[in-house]
Structure formats: structure tokens, C-alpha cells
Amino acid sequence: MKLGGAIRIVGLLSIGFSLTMLPPVLVSLWYGDHQAHHFLKAFGIAFICGSSVWLLTRHEEAPLRRKDGFVVVALFWTALSLLGALPFLFGPHLGFVDALFEAVSGFTTTGATVITNLEVLPRSILYYRQQLQWLGGMGLVVLAVAILPLLGIGGMRIYQAETPGPMKDEKIAPRLTHSARTLWTIYVLLTASCALAYWLAGMTPFDAIGHSFSTISTGGFSTHDASIGYFHSAAIESIATVFMLAGGINFSIHFLALRDKTPLPYLRDIEVRMFLVFVLAAVLLVAAMLWLMGVYPDLSHSVVNAYFEVASIITSTGFGAEDFTAWPLFVPVFLIFISFIGGCGGSTAGGMKVMRILLLMKQGLREVDTLIHPRSIKPIKIGGRVLSERTVEAVWGFFAVYILVFVVLTLAMMATGLDQISAFSAIATSINNLGPGLGEVAYNFANVTAAGKLISTTAMLLGRLEIFTILVLFSPSFWLE
User: Fold this and answer.
1) pLDDT tens digits, residue range 365-402?
2) Where are the alpha helices (H) located in 139-250, listed in sequence order?
3) Residue 386: strand pairing partners
4) Could you give the angle at the alpha carbon of 321 between the alpha carbons of 95 and 455, nearest 5°?
5) Nearest Cα to Cα of residue 337 among 258, 281, 387, 380
């Protein structure tokens, strides 16, 4: 395999990423928080590193192949994590591991943090955290795909390696560049709408913009330790719920709804319907438990609080309005479990994705039917479309590896000294890109050991890139021509 072409692209993308250090400079100058020089230093380092890599490999013009797409994604996310950590090293003076953890948590839209007392941080640092999630939400690689043809290379392989969901070959427009630009246009429009709604509901412009970034990206970072609960506003919680669910729906469905000027695409898509069914079922169960256990005075309060937390967890946003870890019986663990479902493929949400869960359910039912009718041949259909056996096998393979990686990393976390519940939830919240956990990691990862933070960082990247994108690089056959 020729790595020169892939490394050249990473250099170009790193140059592009360096430019994202400039908006925080403007924020710093506006608020006078004396952080501008830190971001300018980070910009200089990122720009010089990217330029140096590009200059060394600028003559590599080999066309991008499928294998190269995986290499570009893995290398770029590694470089992106290291470069993204620089402002945290220079500004709040976090240690390297903490800075890396915070940067990866932002880019992967996990929302877990090692920082406490957010209110005392400089405004530019708070803005930078929110911006990280917004950029990571749709994926910096997908954004770059829109301009890759201008660089003389094709982008489909990168899109396949980066885009979440089991049906990666589908495009919403005839040309990939058009698809990427369309997705980002929708992303920006949703973000602007969310920010405007937050502002009208009572947030300051700074909080409205920051929280719109982390809502649409289903990231969950906040500018306050108390998250959405800081505002004590039912209107703000309702707005957050609506836009979190929007972020958890396949963006190609948003495109179809906008293009046709009708909500019917949401009703026609089986994955969206199942996503909403999962949300409704979880809300009813959690609300019933809260009401029966007397946590809230009446059923309506129970439903409202259950609705917000279920939407926050299943979309892997991780916003908090109430302390769900204190809810009774099995409810906290149940909420962690539904984060494994996640949102729809092609959304900004984490988890295994609704389509995979639906396929696993259908395959399980088919196996039961086969026991009763061993000679029967029953294909699996999704929305009237017959799926190939290869697709079904791929989903089962993904599920098996997902669970295996989860178990191994959980045991590794326990080896760092965390108790079983804390270790379980730390990996669950990391690999599902959720944020809040249980036990020692219910609010933040500040007290987790350096080894534990690195394990969680690994889980975040594996979850964000859907595991196989990384694991395939460890296969000897991958590197053979």
C-alpha cells in the first residue's frame, strides 16, 4: 500500500482544521479574556504541521482507493485529536492526557469531560469546546469531501469509511460533493434554527449559540456545570428535546422532507418510525416508574422529565435537566442500556444505530421461525426491500465485535481501580458517545486515572468510527497489495 497519497490528504485536512482555531480568537477578543494568543499559537502549530506534511508528500498523486479511505480517516482523526488538544494545554493548562481526553470527547460528540467549574473558564475556551462538537457532529471528513474534487482526488471511499450507519453506499444526490454540501447546508440551518429558538426562550446569545452547537451535533457539552438544568426552563428543555431528536434522525430524511416540503418522508422511513417507537416505549416505561415510585407529584411531570432524559440518552447527547442517576429501581441502568441503540444511521447520534437493532431483531425472529419450519426460506426485508445475506452477516459481525470490544474495555477499566458499575458505564458512555455515566463517572471523569482516561478515549474513537474503520488497520491482509 502506498501511504504517501493518504498522508498528503491528511496534511491538507490538517491545514484546513487549523483555520477552526481562528473563530475562538475573535471570541476571545470580543470578551477580552486574554486567550487569543493561545489559539493563535495552536493555529500556528497546526498550520505548520499540516503544511510540512503536505510539502513532504505533495508529489504523491496516486488515486484514492478503498483502503486509502480507511487510512485517511484513521490518521486524520489521530492528528485531529492531537491538534485539537493544544488549546486545552495552553489555556486551562490541562495535562496532556486530560487535554487529549477533552478534545476527543468533543470531536466524537461524546460530551464527557474532565473539567469542573465550567463557569470560571474563559469564554473563548467554552466556545471552543462547543465548536469542537459541532465540527465533529457531521464529521470533518465529510466536510472535506465537498472540496476533495478541487484537490484532484475522489472522495467516495472516505465517505464510506466515515459515514455512520449500515448502508454506506447510498447517496442523497447524484454526486458526492453535492451530497456533502447539501448535508452541511441542512446542518447549518438546523443549528441556526436551534440557536434562535434558545435565544427566544431566554438564553443569552453566547449560551444559545454554544448549546445549539452541542444539541444538533448530539454532543452534550454545556457552558454550565448543571447543563440544561442550569436554566430551569421548561421551554428550553422542550426546544432541546425537539432538536436532539432531529439530530438523531438520518439527515438524508431531513433533506427529502425539505426538498418535497412535506413531513411524509419521516413517516415513510422505517428506521425513523422505529426510532420514534423506541423513544415512545422508553418514555412510557420510565415515566411509569417515576410516577409509581413517587419521584414526581403527578404523571404529567413524570412524562415531561422522562421525555427529556430518554431523548437525551438515546440520541447520545447527554444533556441533563435532572439527576437521572438518582432515579429509583432499574431506571438509571435502563437509560444507559438504551444508549446502545442510538439514533438513525446517517445522523449525528452514537450507539449501534436503529437500523442495526432492527435487523438483529428481524434476524432473531427468522431464526425462531426456521426452528419451526426448517425448510423455509424467508428473506429479511426492510421497508419492502430485500436485504442481501451479506448485509445481515455484516450486521451480526458488527454486533459481535461491538460487544466484545465493550467487554474487553470494561475489564480494562476495572483493572484501573474503578468499581464494576463505574467501569461498565464509563465504557458504555464512551463507546456510545454519550457523556454521562453512573457511579464515579456520573458527572465527569476528573477522578479517573490517566490510564482509565486513555482507555475511555480509545472507546470514544472506536465508537465514533464504528470500530471496523480502526480494527481493519490491524489486519495483516489490509496492508498487502
Assistant:
1) 888 888 888 877 788 877 777 777 877 888 888 899 99
2) 140-145, 156-162, 176-200, 205-216, 234-247
3) 381
4) 30
5) 281
